[in-house]
Design brief:
single chain; rod-shaped; Membrane-bound Lytic Murein Transglycosylase D, Chain A; two-stranded antiparallel ribbon; disordered N terminus; mainly alpha; 2 domains
Length: 250
């Protein structure tokens, strides 16, 4: 009788191969719901945009309603609707924020435009801000005007006249020029209020440029030293010449 020597090995080999095959396969991870993840991200982005708009107290009436609808749609598994509604809420919030900065920039631009004697760098910033406003780029205009106005305001101040004041005395104060001979600078900057350089009144508020050019300072001091005779209530001819002939006594 012939014996198949491989017969005894057949079953163990099959078992071993089966075990190896089982070890080679790993459990599958559950599939990620891409739509749900995108909806969550869209909602989170909308919330951040809304928070920025609300910080300025400038938000559209329906914006938060759209966000709530997006959250409800996401809870029901309707990812497409959730994303669409969240994006609508975000867009509205971003538009509202831009509008806020645009309105602020318009006011700031008006103030900066009224300032005389801006240097080349300041004029360039003002021009760029004007372009941004005309293009409805609110935040860009605001960011351009904020440092410009800070620089302008630091270089100027207002002074309220009190009893006993004179242009000479005001100009000599440490917070203005610390030099009484520079009083013609104040006179010239406030020519619309001062009809006689020797007669000012309590309660008047004067603009004081604390960063005048060297040429303006030289001209002012020269006029103060060589003005000649004066009297209260009279518009001196020398003062009219200093202002370019624009001074009229009322």
């Amino acid at each position: 009788m012939k014996i198949n020597v491989f017969g005894k090995l057949l079953v163990p080999v099959v078992l071993v191969l089966g075990m190896l095959a089982g070890c080679a396969s790993t459990p599958k991870e559950p599939a990620v719901d891409q739509g749900s993840a995108q909806a969550d991200q869209a909602i989170a982005t909308a919330k951040a945009a809304i928070a920025k708009a609300k910080a300025n107290d400038w938000i559209w009436r329906d914006t938060e309603k759209f966000l709530k609808q997006a959250e409800d749609a996401a809870a029901k598994g309707d990812s497409d609707a959730a994303i669409s509604l969240a994006n609508k809420a975000r867009n509205q919030a971003e538009l509202a924020e831009n509008q806020y900065y645009l309105e602020q920039a318009k006011v700031m631009f008006s103030e900066a435009s009224a300032v005389q004697g801006l240097n080349a760098s300041q004029q360039s910033a003002l021009s760029e801000a004007d372009k941004a406003i005309r293009n409805a780029e609110g935040r860009k205009a605001y960011d351009l005007l904020t440092p410009l106005l800070a620089e302008i305001r630091a270089a100027s101040m207002q002074y309220e006249v009190v009893r006993g004041d004179s242009l000479w005395a005001i100009s000599g104060k440490a917070e203005t020029y610390n030099n009484p001979y520079q009083w013609p600078l104040i006179f010239k900057a406030n020519r619309d209020q001062i009809k006689d350089a020797d007669l000012i009144h309590p309660g008047q508020t004067f603009d004081v440029d604390r960063n005048p050019s060297a040429a303006d300072v030289e001209a002012a001091v020269d006029h103060a030293r060589n003005r000649g005779a004066w009297s209260i209530g009279v518009s001196e001819e020398s003062d009219r010449r200093f202002l370019g002939g624009s001074l009229q006594l009322q």
